[in-house]
Fold:
Amino acid sequence: MIDLRLGDCLVEMKKIPDQSIDLVLTDPPYGIDYQSNGRTVSKKFDKLQNDANDFRFEIYPEIKRVLKNDCVAGIFCSFKNYAKDYAFLCKHFDIKNCIVWDKGGGGIGDLFHSLSTDYEFLLVCHKGNCKIRGKREGSVWSIGKVNPNIMRHPTEKPTSLCFKFIEKFSDSDTIILDPFMGSGTTGEAAKRLGRNFIGIEIEPKYFNIAKRRIDNTSPDLFVGIK
Structure:
């Protein structure tokens, strides 16, 4: 089952029944008014909706509501407001880990006064206790970022990063939700892994990119075979 919805995630999530989702993996606007300025990108991306406010805090309780017991929500956040997100999410979840995504290189930024930000955070928010699938490993994941020349979204995460998280915290035929779908990397990873997927995106251009991406994805026949 692939269910892609164009619209406001707060509106669309209210249509999802309580405790019906097996895993959430999402990359909400960080509230930092981000503007992509990469030199190698052929055209600049527009600013994201709701990235200059704390809209994401309206979504976090809804994520808890739709998530089943003993399941996980993976929520990306920035070092700039990590403390704020952590404090809020602790009211709703048991945060057992913060995965540090080592992306192998940062953005341009202030070349003279600021170190390159070559990582992002992924909070692992448990509703109850979710068992790790496979071997236990560390919480620093070194996975290269998306090549700026082929990026389809200003904050696009690599499919392999989403793939690893979904594989680590869910089983086949379960339902994965991404309320901030963007260009569809979570949906692509979920489909490759044989999961069901619900994705919500408010921007029509990114919704169409995600739909094409997911429509053109086939399940990996040998995933899970050891």
